[in-house]
Amino acid sequence: MPQQQKTYVYFDNDPAPLLDRIISDINPNGLFVLADTNTAQYVLPRLSGSKCLQTACTIVVPCGEINKSMESLGNVWKALAHHDANRHSLLVCVGGGMVTDLGGFAAATFKRGIQYINVPTTLLGAVDASVGGKTGINYGGLKNEVGAFHSPAAVVVTASLLATLHAEEMLSGWAEMLKHALLSDPAMVASLISSHPTSCSDPHLLRLMQDSMQVKQQIVAKDPFEGGERRALNFGHTAGHAFESLSIKRKSPVPHGYAVAFGMVVELILSNFALGFPSAEMNNVVRYIKDNYGTFEITCHNYEQLLDYMRHDKKNNGEGINFTLLRQIGDPVIDNHFPDNEICAALDIYRDMML
Ligand SMILES: NC(=O)c1ccc[n+]([C@@H]2O[C@H](COP(=O)([O-])OP(=O)(O)OC[C@H]3O[C@@H](n4cnc5c(N)ncnc54)[C@H](O)[C@@H]3O)[C@@H](O)[C@H]2O)c1
Ligand SMILES: [Zn+2]
């Protein structure tokens, strides 16, 4: 396995001068910016103070998950080639997880790999997608089917760039922050559940994002290529992906972070009865999720379908449905398995608590 390049992550609410410093240090031969149609409209103007970016060639792809595609990747390659990008060019990805995944993969593959910088513009993009080195596109109807590990040279995190995001997008990223906090530290959980993403000041939000990203980076550093420990980050996601798939089947998709929030409820219940996760802390977190995210309605008629989605989760390792659970806050346990009737019992309790 190749070594992952070290990523420098900067937290600053004045990104333009910082970007200029980072770009000057890298001293690229050719500078490119990748944005989607929304970030080109809402975010690039806020970076106009960057002298370097003013000279860059901007590549814009259509927004939306559907465009994290082979076609967009081809268009990015085409634009890079057309403007004579070379092995020493630099790509600055300004966007949410869709842009940083796509741009990171374009950077991983163009001329066998060029450097890139992420400027995340969604909360989820910042705390989850911008670090960790995973890049990729969707292919053949499958999410993240083709990709590479290729770490950005730098990540520039700025809370004020999130100002134009919908509240729903903020809450979606906040759920991943709650996950990081549950994997890490009771004080971090307490500061998130005594707060709300849309009422935080920029400096406060930036500090919370910094703590959250540190959790992810520490876990990834121990297991950069996902051999084991990194699966801790899957907490909430086995049940969460099943809820997400069911919501798509119902033709009323819930944002990824909402599905993870509901998935964390199920997985806290499993943690409580299998590993003794404390009931009082479970109740606190579940109440916060119900108050802020509402609920995902299910009946017992959905159980078989949900189990089926969980059985097909790509994080399973051939031994049935695989859960990352918590013994307590900050003490994750990977590779937990349950018979179907126990998962159904957890779904019963989910309905008691959430409906
Ligand atoms: N690489 C990883 O480790 C990793 C981790 C988690 C998620 N992901 C990927 O991230 C993607 C989801 O990321 P996302 O939730 O950021 O979605 P996204 O990038 O599609 O952004 C969501 C929407 O917000 C818009 N937007 C972005 N920034 C904006 C801003 N500042 N103001 C207004 N609108 C803005 C986008 O144009 C888009 O319409 C998925 O493709 C997922 O697979 C990757
Ligand atoms: Zn997630």
What tags apply to this protein structure?
two-stranded antiparallel sheet; binds zinc ion; six-stranded parallel sheet; about 350 residues; alpha/beta; binds nicotinamide-adenine-dinucleotide; 14 helices
List the ligand species.
nicotinamide-adenine-dinucleotide, zinc ion
How many DSSP helices?
14
Query: Outline, from the CA principal axes?
Result: globular
Radius of gyration: 20 Å
List the strand order in the largest sheet.
1-8-5-4-2-3
Proportion of residues in β-strands: 15-25%
Helix content: 40-55%
Structural class: alpha/beta
Tell me the series of helices and strands, N- to C-terminal. EHEHHEHEHEHEEEHHHHHHHEEH
Residue windows where pLDDT falls under 50 for at least 5 positions: none
Please tell me the overall pLDDT. Answer: 96
Distance between the termini: 47 Å
Q: Please summarize the sheet with the most strands.
A: 6 strands, parallel
The count of β-strands is 10
Folded structure, characterized:
The protein has 355 residues and is an alpha/beta fold. It has helices spanning 15-26, 37-42, 51-54, 70-82, 97-109, 123-129, 167-182, 186-193, 202-222, 237-249, 256-275, 279-293, 303-311, 340-354; strands at 8-11, 31-36, 57-61, 90-95, 115-120, 134-139, 142-149, 154-157, 323-328, 331-336. Nicotinamide-adenine-dinucleotide binds next to α2, α5 and α6.
Task: Give a nutshell description of this structure.
Helices cover 48% and strands 16% of the residues. It has helices at residues 15-26, 37-42, 51-54, 70-82, 97-109, 123-129, 167-182, 186-193, 202-222, 237-249, 256-275, 279-293, 303-311, 340-354, and strands at residues 8-11, 31-36, 57-61, 90-95, 115-120, 134-139, 142-149, 154-157, 323-328, 331-336.
